[in-house]
Each structure stands twice: as C-alpha cells, then as structure tokens.
Amino acid sequence: MPIDVHFRSGGITVAGHLYLPEDYKEGQKRAAVVTVAPGGGIKEQTSGRYARELRDRGFVALAFDHRSYGESEGFPRYDEDPFAKIEDIKNAVSYLRNRPEVDPDRIGAMGICGGGGYAPAAAATDRRIKAVATVSGVGDQRGVFHEQTGSDHGVLVAMLEACGAARQAFSRGDEPTYWPLIPGSEVENAFAPLKEAPDYYYDSTRGAHPRWENKTLAWSLEKQLTFSALDVVSLIAPHPLLLIVGTESTSRSHNETTYAAAADPKELFLIDGASHLDLYDLDQYVKQAADKLADFFSQSL
C-alpha cells in the first residue's frame, strides 16, 4: 500500500502516493523517481502504475495529483497549466530530497504523454533531477494545437477569444468554464492520441476513477498554446534522457522530434506493437517499459 503524503507547491497543498520497495529497511537511502501523469491525469491512473512498477524494481517512487486535480487543492479545478505543473514536479523533488528514505542526490523523473513534456522541461532547469524518461511522451503542446488547427490563425484567435470570454465570466462570479479534455467522436481533427483515450479513461478495468473527470479549464488553452518542451530539452544534458514509445503509437513522431532536439546522452527505445495508450496499463507492454526504466535509472542514479 502506498503512503499518503502531502507537500506544498505554489502555496497549494498537493496530495501524493509514496511507494517504498518491499525490501526497504529503515536507515537506507534509496534512489527515487517522480512519476508524472498525462495531461488531466491523476495519481491512481497510469502514473501510479509506473510508480508501483518502479517500487517493485527497488526504487522509492512518488506519484501525485497536480494542483487542481484529484485530491490536491486548487481552484478553479482541472487547470492544465504546463508551467504550474513543472513547478509541482520541482516541488515534488524538494519533498523527496527531505524524505529519510531517499538519497537526495539520486532522484529522477519520468512522465507519460503530456507528463512526458513536463518532466523533461522540469529536468532541463532543475539540476537536482539527475535523469529523466518519458513513456508515450507528447512534449510539444504548442505544436499539437497548430497541428489540430492546421496553423489557421483565425481558428487559433477564435479559441483564444473563447478563453477570454470564459475568464471574464469567471471574474463576474460565474462558475468556471470547463471544456472536454477528450473530444467526442464528432471532432474530426482531434489530436490522434486523444481518439484512443476513451478506451482507457472510460473503462473501469483500466483508467476510470471517481476522481477523474473529462474536463479541462477553458483558459488552460492559453498556457498550453505557449508551451513546448522542445524549447529547453537540449538543456537536460549532460544528464541522460530516455524516450520510450510504441512502434504503433500515434505519438511516435513526437518522440522522434524530441529525440532530434535533445543533446547526448539520449536514447529512443521502441516497444514493438504498442500503441500510445497500450503503454499506460497493458501488462505485456508496461512490463517491458518498466524493465527499461529500471535499467536506465539504475545506471543513471
């Protein structure tokens, strides 16, 4: 069972699950990894799964709810703010460095999907993160929006005008405006990984959870539109970067672009037959990814 923990980030209390290896003995200082959820995700979903996999391979692992998600504080809710999330990761590192079970000089981070942009961006500027990895990473949110809209300036402006209207309504005392995180099937130009997302998030045997809702704060879009880990990923070096993606993943091209933008040491590791969402929770693929992560962090931390 995980240990329920809390730490402060941006003046907000953030909730997490800390996982200790079964063979942990009091007084030991272990390497630790922060696992970062996909955009909109919570700690009971895939980031928690990877935290458990890393625990089973000898690491201390921390999965947490970003501010405004899950059991963490923060209002309005569901604020997909890349820059705030990066700060949450850095504050999670601060928390781990103060834990008696953790060697403060052996801390890494890994992120899934959108977390695969936030974790590298955090590692690029926080040198306390000694190694970083991604699984089905999507690090270029700015590029995603341009991809979805065909870089149509008019469409982007209309989206931003809707954000401004939502902000103004909130300032008048209205409830926050939330848009679907996962678009309906009628949205033809939806980001490809999101088209698979219902198979995971709506399935009670996979990612469905009472604290997860298909919502994102309307004006989160303003911040996402200006974020790309590609701007800073080269700064991770000389710390190592590992990118794990399935050969059948709709995010494979994003990983190849990130790999090209990064500096050595870096590795792009392909898992044969896996789609973007397969790597969230399907045993045959997650076990391969977790073994690779454990090998990577064992050598790097």
UniProtKB/TrEMBL annotation:
Cited Gene3D superfamilies: 1.10.10.800, alpha/beta hydrolase (3.40.50.1820)
InterPro entries (UniProt xref): AB_hydrolase_fold, Polyketide_trans_af380, Xaa-Pro-like_dom
Residue span(s) of domain Xaa-Pro dipeptidyl-peptidase-like: 11-145
Molecular functions per Gene Ontology: hydrolase activity
Stored SUPFAM superfamilies: alpha/beta-Hydrolases
Pfam families per the UniProt record, alphabetical: Peptidase_S15 (PF02129)
Protein name, as recorded: Xaa-Pro dipeptidyl-peptidase-like domain-containing protein
Organism: Streptomyces dysideae
Lineage summary: Bacteria, Bacillati, Actinomycetota, Actinomycetes, Kitasatosporales
